[in-house]
């Protein structure tokens, strides 16, 4: 039967989708199963059309929240809240299928690579990660890929629901005025930190070696070898290598310009010369055009950088630092024009707080690499060039800038407008999500295991 779902499920969630998974700091957030010897008894606890919630999903998130609580009291209904969040996510996935809300394979592969690179960095090496989980990196990525696809789809579905919601300054002020004075939060020390990142350059020897290897592969294909077989053997693109280099169909503008430009010159079955992009060096085989989309295979090689290759990057940063300190250029302009970190360069180089979208970061939540660097810095100071590894595992150099240091204080509109605006926006988005939930709650089939019946996930909402 079709079961109506509790309206409170929607309104209880401040930010419903993808709080898990997009700031990878744990196995559960990464979507990686537990290490050997720590497997949980599993089973389906909820069905939402053809989407399911597993007992292990609830238990892993519960364990993560307990660990995060650090000994503080755990709400008795925590598992129910987790289950409600998961049910809403599954409802979004179910509706996404009906509404044809999809994400591309390239988006999924990029996020898998980003998250795995981050986790490898945290563990120390790919070898240590493989040893901990008793699986090769390729298998871990394959395990992660379906979950990442679901998470990206949920994110896109929520964006279709709440993407146009905005708040005015008046609404922010009204929201703040409703908060009881004795309930206003107390913020710890917060800082604004900027960075300019310049990647290490690939040395010419490694670059030429990659080009030579791809030219040799190209000669093998022209002599009759199978492109897909060679892609499985040689390509360093983990997302497509196992598929014989196949990337699927893309519209114009969805792939990097160099790759697309080379592809558009080819006819079905033809192969490109070696093409360079930000990802490395490609050999492309064009497959077919279908409407306004096209499909290709590729073989990717990524020349390695070395510590000696960071010299040019460091020299550039030394020059930029000197210009900033002499007021020849602002840090914001230097970051916008030179930094390779797209997440911060458009923001004047300032790192963003993922919780509220602002630029002030809690000092005690900073990455250790930044915390121990700025701990003794004065406001306005800029570090000399420092070694850095990007989220996707590339060697780079960066300089850090301490823009501000705000002492502990109780929330107020003047100092904390960005946070208060974010909270007001979340409340308004919740209302939009709630309306969507009410509209769509009766369009799916839901079934819940008896062990979670007390959670009242399926209660009819009172209107």
UniProtKB/TrEMBL annotation:
Record has Signal as a keyword: yes
Start and end residues of each stretch annotated as Disordered: 336-362
Descriptive protein name: Peptidylprolyl isomerase
Organism: Hymenobacter negativus
SUPFAM superfamilies: FKBP-like (SSF54534), Triger factor/SurA peptide-binding domain-like (SSF109998)
Molecular-function annotations in GO: isomerase activity
Signal peptide per UniProt: 1-28
Pfam family, one: SurA_N_3
InterPro entries, per the entry: OMP_Chaperone_SurA, PPIase_dom_sf, PPIase_PpiC, PPIase_PpiC_CS, Trigger_fact/SurA_dom_sf
Domain called PpiC: residue spans: 188-288, 291-401
Keywords annotated in UniProt: Isomerase, Rotamase, Signal
PROSITE patterns reported for this sequence: PPIC_PPIASE_1, PPIC_PPIASE_2
């Amino acid at each position: 039967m079709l079961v109506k779902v509790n309206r409170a499920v929607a309104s209880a969630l401040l930010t419903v989708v993808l709080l898990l998974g997009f700031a990878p700091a744990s196995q559960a957030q990464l979507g990686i199963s537990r290490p050997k010897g720590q497997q949980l008894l599993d089973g389906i606890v909820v069905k939402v059309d053809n989407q399911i919630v597993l007992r292990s999903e609830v238990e892993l998130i519960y364990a993560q929240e307990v660990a995060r609580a650090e000994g503080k009291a755990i709400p008795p209904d925590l598992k129910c809240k987790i289950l409600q969040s998961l049910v809403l996510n599954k409802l979004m996935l179910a509706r996404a299928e009906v509404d044809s809300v999809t994400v591309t394979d390239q988006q999924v592969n990029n996020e898998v690579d980003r998250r795995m690179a981050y986790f490898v960095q945290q563990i120390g090496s790919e070898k240590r990660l493989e040893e901990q989980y008793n699986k090769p990196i390729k298998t871990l990525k394959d395990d992660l890929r379906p979950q990442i696809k679901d998470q990206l789809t949920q994110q896109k579905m929520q964006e279709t629901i709440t993407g146009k919601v905005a708040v005015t300054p008046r609404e922010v002020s009204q929201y703040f005025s409703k908060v009881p004075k004795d309930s206003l939060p107390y913020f710890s020390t917060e800082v604004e930190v900027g960075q300019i990142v310049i990647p290490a350059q690939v040395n010419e020897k490694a670059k030429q070696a990659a080009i030579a290897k791809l030219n040799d592969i190209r000669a093998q294909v022209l002599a009759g070898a199978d492109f897909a077989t060679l892609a499985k053997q040689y390509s360093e693109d983990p997302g497509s290598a196992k598929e014989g280099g196949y990337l699927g169909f893309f519209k114009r503008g969805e792939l990097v310009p160099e790759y697309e430009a080379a592809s558009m010159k080819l006819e079905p079955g033809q192969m490109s010369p070696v093409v360079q992009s930000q990802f490395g060096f490609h050999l492309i085989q064009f497959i077919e055009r279908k409407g306004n989309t096209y499909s290709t295979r590729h073989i990717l090689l990524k020349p390695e950088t070395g510590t000696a290759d960071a010299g040019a990057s460091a020299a550039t940063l030394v020059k930029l630092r000197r210009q900033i300190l002499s007021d020849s250029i602002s840090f914001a302009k230097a970051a916008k024009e030179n930094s390779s970190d797209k997440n911060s360069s458009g923001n004047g180089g300032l790192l963003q707080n993922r919780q509220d979208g602002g630029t002030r970061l809690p000092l005690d939540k900073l990455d250790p690499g930044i915390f121990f660097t700025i701990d003794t810095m004065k406001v306005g100071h800029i570090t000399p060039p420092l070694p850095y590894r990007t989220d996707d595992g590339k060697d780079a150099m960066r300089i850090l800038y301490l823009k501000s240091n705000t002492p502990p204080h109780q929330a107020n509109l003047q100092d904390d407008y960005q946070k208060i605006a974010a909270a007001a926006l979340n409340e308004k988005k919740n209302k939009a999500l709630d309306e969507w939930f009410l509209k769509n709650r009766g369009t799916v089939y839901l079934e819940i295991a008896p062990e979670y019946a007390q959670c009242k996930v399926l209660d009819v909402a009172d209107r």
